[in-house]
Amino acid sequence: MKKAAIMVADGFEEIETIVPYDLLTRAGVLVELVNVENKKEATGANGLIIETPIELRGFDFETADALIIPGGPGYQVLAKTPLVEDEIHAFANNPEKILGSICAGSALTGQLGVYKDKDYVCVPDLNQDTFGGKFEKKHAVVDGNLVSGISVGGAFEFAFDLIEKLVDKKTADKLKKETYYKL
Q1: Domain spans of the chain?
Q2: What percent of the residues of the chain are helix, what percent strand, and what percent coil, each to the nearest 5?
Q3: What is the mean pLDDT of residues 103-115?
Q4: For residue 94, what pLDDT band results from cuts at 50, 70 and 90?
Q5: What is the CA 87 to chain-centroid distance, rounded?
Q6: Lowest mean pLDDT: which of 45-54, 97-106, 123-132, 145-154?
Q7: What residue ranges in the chain does DSSP mark as E strands?
Q8: Dist. CA 163–CA 78, nearest whole Å
Q9: Cα gap 142→150, rounded to integer Å
């Protein structure tokens, strides 16, 4: 069974976290919510409280096939956590692993130099020329083992791209049909 870790902190963007969590789970991926602040729950940017049973210091990232970085104001907490930076680089530099990031999470990934010479998308307000890649104005972009999403409006496309990379296109297409993603 494939496994994905979603890093969260207080201020995480709910849709950018819950949509990938839900759709990946439906695709048969074990999804773990890892709290960067080492707490048992996290409060989203819009007040949703979720249980986060796994603390950052207690998670073995070697066991994960994918690392997902959502946006929201909580990305600033992730940006100040050295282990987060280490894991983002570890996943980005391992072609056997998937690094997914969306909105401000993609901006953080860009600030860390991961998008150098790559195609990507992040929330346009946080895009910087210093990321060194090619900004694509799309809901989601796949470049090698990197999957990036623009914002809340791209959460489904982002999640389906993650499923294609982690599981397969057939499963992603099946879920698109089952969830009435496109009529």
Answers
A1: 3-178
A2: 40, 20, 35
A3: 97
A4: very high
A5: 13
A6: 123-132
A7: 3-8, 30-35, 41-43, 49-51, 54-55, 66-69, 98-102, 119-120, 134-135, 140-143, 146-149
A8: 24
A9: 12
Whose CA is closest to 150, among 142, 138, 161?
138
CA distance 160 to 85: 25
Q: What is the pLDDT of residues 35-79, one digit of tens each?
A: 999 999 999 999 999 999 999 989 999 999 999 999 999 999 999
Alpha helices in 49-154 (DSSP H): 75-79, 82-92, 104-111
Residue 182 pLDDT level (bands cut at 50, 70, 90): confident
What is the rounded CA–CA span in Å between residue 8 and residue 62? 18
Cα angle at 40 between 38 and 42, to 5 degrees? 85
Phi and psi at 43, nearest 5°, equal: -105, 125
pLDDT given for residue 129 in this prediction: 87
Q: Is 100 helix (H, G, I), strand (E, B) or coil?
A: strand
Query: Which top CATH class is 3-178?
Result: alpha beta
